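Entry 12.
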Amino acid sequence: MNALAEELHQQHMANPHYPPSHFYPEKPRRRRRQRPPYDHTPMGPGDIKPGTWLWVIPGGLHPGWGDIHRLAMLTALGTPYCEVWMDDTTVHRVRPEKLILADAGRQAAHAAGLTTIRQTTGPRPRPLLPEWRWVDWTLAEHIAHQQHAAPATEAAEQPVQDELFTVA
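Predicted 3D structure (tokens):
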């Protein structure tokens, strides 16, 4: 019996059987929406707005959407969840740590007049230049950078001509 069990185990390991497609859970119903009119290319750390194209990494969507990277457009920026629009016109809520920029670094470097954002000297693989490390950040890191930089700009805003709006 042990020899037969071992033979069957070896055969199964050589020819694995994956579950059929109906084994996976059903995709939940999602709102469908026309493509948003936004278009934004990030040019630096924290420069994230609606219209930014992102990759949803595996585990960011419901299991029915599979475990591959999906291209999506950011439509609403938020802390616990962000809203993204996908090319199949569905709208999803995704955690920001599951979203990474799509091709933004190359476009920003090209707009800045650079030919490469990687170090040209040293052993391979070539790491990113220090000023371009933001290209590999997740959306959560961009939001944290925005929140870290925002208090300085909000504190600088003071009301102008406050005495004109007082009620006497």
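Annotation: The chain has a mean pLDDT of 79. Residues 139-156 form the longest helix (18 residues).
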